[in-house]
Amino acid sequence: MSKFQIVVPGLLLLSSPVFAQGEPLDDAAGESGLIIVTAARAPITSDQIASSVTVLDKPAIDASQAIIISDVLVRATGVTLTRNGGYGTATGVRIRGAESDQTVVVIDGVKLNDPSSTGGGYNFANLFVGDTAQIEILRGPQSILWGSQAIGGVVNIVTASPEKSLEGSFDVEAGSRQTFSARAGIGGVTGPVTWRLAGNAFTTDGISALSPRVGGVEPDRYTDVGGNGRVNVDLGGGAGLDLRGYYGRGRVEIDSTTRDTLDYSTTEDMLGYSAISVPLLDGRWRNRLAISATQTDRDSFGPTRARPQSLAAHGTNRRYEYQGGFAITQGWDATFGLEREESRLRTYNLPASLTAVIPTPTRGSARLDSLYGQLIAQVIDPLTITAGVRHDDHDRFGGNTVFGGGAILSLFNGNSLIRGNYAEGFKAPTLYQLQSEYGNAALKPETSEGWEAGLEQRLFDRAVTLSATYYARDAENLIVFYSCSGAPAGLCLQPGSATIGRSGYYDNVSRTRTQGVELGGSVDVAGFALSGNYSWIDAEDRSPGATLGKKLRRLPRNTANGSIGYAFGFGLSLAAAVRWSGKAFENAANTQILDDYTLIDLRAALKAGDGLEIYARAENLFDEYYETARNYNTLGRSIHVGLRGRF
């Protein structure tokens, strides 16, 4: 009998996106009145949200003891993860089977992506928990409010904001493989000014990124430093000034797909945001003007090359936003806005020989103008409906319009919730896909249509919560890369040339169909907590050709998570968590299999004084070997001990 057969069945009787004690994930609908930002780009209560959302507050994040955001997300309903090795290696997070670059990542309301990367998505490798106070995971197409890339969903990360005149926090821990992590934050409220500064550092000797089963031996080190800050100034009359910044820099050693190497890469992320908010008409009309900028620099090096640097990639985004909100009447609220996004890339692929001529860099730029509006209306006391529309105008491919709408019925004092939602999403072609040497200027945006229906029941004064959701999504015009061979013709010719060929090109040719079921449940009584979730994701390639009907690569059809824990009255908390992933396919032809696996973790925490806590965890307790990407290694058994303080 496997470890999965021993541990999981009892947990799945109460499967939920809520993890208690060691891994507490709180479903938004599980607590009436919980404030969510992602779903409406403004504060809104959970019982008004028609689509599925999971929320993790600060106590839940602390209890998880996770160091990086992706390790928290992977235990949430409908979320899967792919990582090419240990900490710091390329990490993709997929929501409901959508590709990682079809997920929008937001820090404090600022949308992140990397315009210099092939797919334009965000690499979660260097995103640490740090000063995070809340994480919101919105599932399903969300392009009405969040624009391009929101086909799978949105991950919104909210950093801490102080409430006292002076307050701070710290976490420091050490563990297996010479791993050390530390973070600290301090802030306060002084008159009209609220401020917060935080920083974090991480280092590990790591594991070989290449699997030991194909010869990986040498450990690959990873280091990272980062920080964030925010200042809010109350200008009086409800008006305010908001300034935020974020910085992170990581260095990770990497391997090829066939052998250990001394190669390494660095990534530097910067974010800046400034906004002014002005309410009018006694606060009924809310206005916010904002400017934000992000920059990502990626460099790759091979120390054994004559010219060590092999890649230099630079991507920037600048966004100008107006967002308005209007309280029409009691229970009726509109959100609307205008946005302009300007993105640029510059990449060099540098030859190894010092005598070779450095090629002209690949450069690209694009502008995206957007107009959106959404109405949330409580038409009758138990029924709230949502409807919205968005139009985007891209200076390369033209216009695109998406629609969406849903409803939530709240019965029996909010203890019974019935949700239904329809939404459309799109993803603009990336600068690399449009304007690199493999580019295709005629590309159209990737598009999706999806719907979901779900219900949730709260019992025994909300000590027990049960939920179930079914969803389906069709995606079309997906962009894929084609290799060229033989005599050049058509798109295998370099743009503007009738004779010169190229090795490949991008084109809109793929489509997928995804459906799924999400089950959840939790029990929380007198310090005892039991919870879990189960996700069935059936994602097929619907493109004509040899792969028609095949399952999407690296996407397990079945996943489950569970947790059981108890908090003693004298300050000790104990918990065990399990994560199971069914088998997946490595390749589009479905001939290479990634085996299923089961991971079991233990958590413990003990209050050691006013605001102090000692904690420890054992991850992958039974040292299970598994792969999320073929021939890439994963972390085995790991032991960590730490101390945290809150004052």
From TrEMBL:
Membrane topology classification: Multi-pass membrane protein
Annotated GO CC locations: cell outer membrane
PROSITE patterns registered for this protein in UniProt: TONB_DEPENDENT_REC_3
TonB-dependent receptor-like beta-barrel domain: residues covered: 219-621
Any single Pfam family the record assigns to this protein: Plug
Family matches, as InterPro entries: Beta-barrel_TonB (IPR000531), Beta-barrel_TonB_sf (IPR036942), Plug_dom (IPR012910), Plug_dom_sf (IPR037066), TonB-dep_rcpt-like (IPR039426)
Ion transport as UniProt keyword: yes
Leader peptide range in chain numbering: 1-20
Localization, UniProt: Cell outer membrane
Alphabetical keyword list: Cell outer membrane, Ion transport, Membrane, Signal, TonB box, Transmembrane, Transmembrane beta strand, Transport
SUPFAM superfamilies: Porins
Domain TonB-dependent receptor plug positions: 48-154
GO biological process: cobalamin transport; monoatomic ion transport
Family assignment from sequence similarity: Belongs to the TonB-dependent receptor family.
Protein name: Vitamin B12 transporter
